[in-house]
Amino acid sequence: MTSPHAFWVAGRRATGADSFDVTNPYDGRLVGTVSVPTDDQVEEAVAAAHAVRDEFAATPAHVRAAALDHVVRRLGERTEEIARLISAENGKPIKWARGEVGRAVSVFRFAAEEARRFNGGEAQRLDTDLGGTGRLGLTRRFPRGAVLGIAPFNFPLNLSAHKVAPAIAVGAPIILKPAPATPISSLILGELLAETDLPAGSWSVLTVPNDKMPALVQDERLPVISFTGSGPVGYAIMESVPRKHCTLELGGNGAAVVLSDYASDEDLDWAATRIATFSNYQGGQSCISVQRVIADASVYDRLVPKIVAAVEALATGDPADPTTDVGPLVSEDAAKRVESWVDEAVQGGAELLTGGKRDGATYAPTVLAGLPDDVTLSCEEVFGPVMSLQKVDGEAEAFAAVNSSKYGLQAGVFTHDLQTAFRAHRALEVGGVIIGDVPSYRADQMPYGGAKQSGVGREGVRYAMDDYTYERVLVLTGLAL
């Protein structure tokens, strides 16, 4: 019998008295057993992070950058191993898991680059008024303190990277709490960090059960919380600690808009293929997957059969098979929830164009039309391989339909018109507008986050670094400017 996977306390490998199993959602096989930290071990990690905060903030940029560069190299060397692990614990098709490792490599590379140029200082003349004669302001950024990073199951490595890498880049200690369903890839990340020369206490990876999290959230020694997950949990965290700095990356209800000028067969083939792929990749378990397709009436009837055909062409099955496009959801309970929402919509009058069937944790890629406004699928994030189609009359009606959601993460607009692109950028109440593609596009260096109930703050390496730090001004007096 193999030993449980250890967690990491202040950079040191450790095990606790309890453990839990991680299973493959596709076939139920055991992926690994993970040790659970005791309350004393959690306290040790928090105390160490708090104690090292000044030392870590003062660490030379080249030391932090070298550690990040090391993780870049080691992730690259272990890509296939880690991708297969992500696929096993998450159910993500192996081709998407490989892509996730590649993205994590980029995140750490961007962080290494930013660590070398961040905090260079901005000088400001203050002698613009008489009282400022001979004075110069110098502004720099300093860490707010230790960070509690809470990662989700859907991108267990890359979204952990988005919390850990910016913290290291600015010199902020971080305690990473991975999702219970998918902790092992984060523990592998701990292995790589342990190979660096970062100060003891500057990082920990704690496989803490969810019911133990309130104490960590409330701990005043962790003044920054970076959370990615569901809206109810995220807002409950923020409301419970109003004096902390919280970054919340929450849900979405991603809309892809196809406007009247996107009308050639080539245009519609591209739109249909992209929509089909990114409604269903990761089993639809992405906050920016396509959940709503809003198409102008002039192209709707030609677009719909293309989308249905593209969805039906997707290969569903074993995530370890490189030809598989759509694997299982993270659990059978998650698939049952999606099934219940689709059944509710069909009973309410929606037309099922394809899909609508569940096999264990796998739910068939599903397309609905004529979705009633009062069903759950119309207003909540499905987080599964389901999309709805809506016909609209013109740009204004399309943009209004996008904005009708309580969420506002990203939107995709298929148009060739530059003026329309700028109108979309102004009108759509979302954090990102993607022109000529689906809302599911994300570059890991760009600002990523939402409006309305999609969260607070931004990820993307440089933007997370800003969130983890604050400006402090130094005023110099008596200078000959």
From TrEMBL:
Aldehyde dehydrogenase domain: residues covered: 18-471
Pfam family, one: Aldedh
Record keyword GTP-binding present: no
GO MF terms, alphabetically ordered: oxidoreductase activity
Alphabetically ordered keywords of this record: Oxidoreductase
Similarity comment text for this entry: Belongs to the aldehyde dehydrogenase family.
Protein name, UniProt field: Aldehyde dehydrogenase
Organism: Kitasatospora albolonga
Lineage per the UniProt record: Bacteria, Bacillati, Actinomycetota, Actinomycetes, Kitasatosporales
